[in-house]
Amino acid sequence: MSEESVSRPKPSEVTPDSLLHTGASDDVTPEDLVLSSGRDVTPSTLEWARRRLEKEGRAAIDTQLP
Question: pTM (2 decimals)?
Answer without folding.
Answer: 0.60
